[in-house]
Amino acid sequence: MSSDVFQALAEPRRREVLALLADEERTAGDIAARFDVTRQAISQHLRILLAAGLIRERRDGARRWYQARPEGLEEVRAYLEAMWPDALSRLKAAAEREHASGRRRGAAD
After folding, report:
1. What is the DSSP string of 23-78?
2. CATH number of the domain at 4-70, please?
3. What is the rounded (10 degree) CA torsion for 20, 21, 23, 24?
4. Given its phi and psi angles, is residue 53 left (phi above 0), alpha (psi -120 to 50 degrees) or beta?
5. Which end of the chain is more exposed for a tag (fewer CB within 10 A), N or C?
6. Which residues pair with 68 in a beta bridge?
7. Phi, psi of 44, rounded to the nearest 5 degrees
8. 88-103 confidence digits (pLDDT tens)
9. What is the mean pLDDT of the chain?
């Protein structure tokens, strides 16, 4: 699995940018105006998100428009889903053991 996606998501500001782009396409200037950092810093975040495949860029003349790519998170989703079934089955087994031991104690009282 590529670590680019996880590295891109590790930075809180990039997660904020990605969330901002989840609902609508925005220009780099619009994105930068929403943060208290330089446009250059936002441009760097956008380049990293692009390289990780988490956003797409559309050029319209001199403007660049950015939007989240939900399919870019498929790798993360697959990774987490592969981990959860085992964790959930262990949690279920522990809850069932706890429930069974509680019933035995209740029957003895």
Report:
1. TS-EEHHHHHHTSSS-HHHHHHHHHHHHHTTSEEEEEETTEEEEEE-GGGGHHHHH
2. 1.10.10.10
3. 120
4. left
5. C
6. 55
7. -65, -45
8. 677 778 888 988 887 6
9. 86
